[in-house]
Amino acid sequence: MTQHVTEYRWLLPGGLRDAPPKERPRVRRSTRDWIVDTVIFLLAAGIGLLAAVEIQGNLDLPKPVRIADQLIGVVSCASVWLRRRWPVGLALALVPVSLVSEVGGGAGVAALFTVAVHRPFKHAALVAGLNMATVPVYLVMRPDPELSFRAGLAVMILALLVVTIWGMLVRARRQLVVSLHERAERAETEAELRVEGARRLERERIAREMHDVLAHRLSLLSVHAGALEYRPDMPPDDVAKAAEVIRSGAHQALQDLREVIGVLRLGAEETVPDRPQPTLSDLTGLAEESRAAGMDVTLDLKVTGKEEVPARLGRNAYRIAQEGLTNARKHAAAAPVSMVVAGGPGDGLTVEIHNPMTEGQAIPGSGTGLIGLTERAELMGGRLEYGRAPDGRFRLSAWLPWAA
Fold this sequence. Notes:
Number of strands: 5
Structural class: alpha+beta
């Protein structure tokens, strides 16, 4: 299919088919091309054979003329195999042949059809016009005993018009196929760019959030280090505790810094924190905020060891819940929304949001928010799923790892 689409692309206006012969790449014939060429050759040969039988029965023609007609017709039928390489040249060469050889008439029709399929309208009109101009001369040289001059002229011109229009319709259909194929490729490329842009923006946002957490840790380190500097007479136990806090904070800060480097792949652009970053304890306030906006939100918080939730885990869980409630408010504003947050150290943290969907309702929107949430969960080593649940409601489910 790809090879045929590549070849059909030559048929587009300004394509390679319309380019000079030296600029056209040679394309090997496919199995389909061989079958089509064989069928057209057999049709041309069959028309020529019928004409040859008729010539043999026409005793008014001298025998040398009949023999010459058949020989010229055989050569014309054999030349049909060149129709893909030189379609216009072959068609023009067969125009005068049709005046002297009835057997070569089928080859002339095949050449005209080829030009109408593979060349622009001006070439097809030129070849068709020359063939029609030779029809009166042919009827004068070889009148049909069963038809009058006018009737024969009308029949032959009509046949040439039918062949030309048929070829042009085939060309138009192939151009449509190529156009639709290119449009589909362009739409797929644009969709990939949108997804990549959403991922890039989400990574930048995550990096900004992690920048705030890192700044907070470094501030704590500075406070404890300053206490050691200004209070050298502190008791040994207090010094040991401060050193432990500094050591643990430095280790966590180093981990955060590595995560920032891994997430932010766009260079060293300076970022500014937008606002203090949320934690898991802020989910209650988020639910209350949604209720104040008119939503019917039910929050079921079943988390073991809420005080031990890591900052990064709580921040990502909050962002997932926030985006889920935002989607529910957009697409099911008046419907009740249930949110369940459960888990504990070693089991991970699960965030599930359900909201009803009307029958036949499609999930609207560009989907970039959900793409960003998926990227956020995967960067943390978790997973996120969304879609229509078996009960007909829309379900957003995320699982995030929580080390014991």
